[in-house]
Amino acid sequence: MQRRSTQGVVFVHACPKALCQHVEWALERVIGAPVTLSWAEQPAAHGSYRAEIAWTGGTGTGSKLAAALKAWPMLRFEVTEDASQGNDGERLAYVPGQGIFRAPVSANGDLVVTEQQLRHLAATATSPEGFRHGVDQLLGAAWDDDLETYRHAGDGGPVTWLHQVV
After folding, report:
1. What is the pTM of this model?
2. Is the pLDDT of residue 165 over 70?
3. Is the pLDDT reported for residue 35 higher than 70?
4. Domain topology for 5-112+143-163
5. CB distance 69 to 51 below 8 Å
6. Distance (Å, whole) CA 106 – CA 58
7. In the chain, what are the domain boundaries?
């Protein structure tokens, strides 16, 4: 049986200096290969560092990477996994105090909101404002609002490639 492969990116938006090496080790455990990130100061959070790394691996690697990183509740990060043959992609984001946001992503990069999610929201929303709030929840607006400053601070930063050992 052929193993399906995909790719994605891990964005560590804010990490205390003392955890940088631990983050690399956690990624190594998932990928099965040595990881060295190019850490840069995160201007949006004094004393924090940021890094991003592109990866290739089997389907589901993105969620394994996010699970490994959420061991440190002070991190801010995002993990993407591109759609691959027979599988939707996904986006996972973590913000301290909000936990993890997870959503499927289509081949063109849009978050996917399902028919059932919309039907449930339409049936339970008690006002137009409640419906709008529900859509914001489905799209992870609270995570995006928090992470936007950190994303811009990393524009133009270096990207390293990881390849999972098979």
Report:
1. 0.86
2. no
3. yes
4. Alpha-Beta Plaits (3.30.70)
5. no
6. 18
7. 5-112+143-163
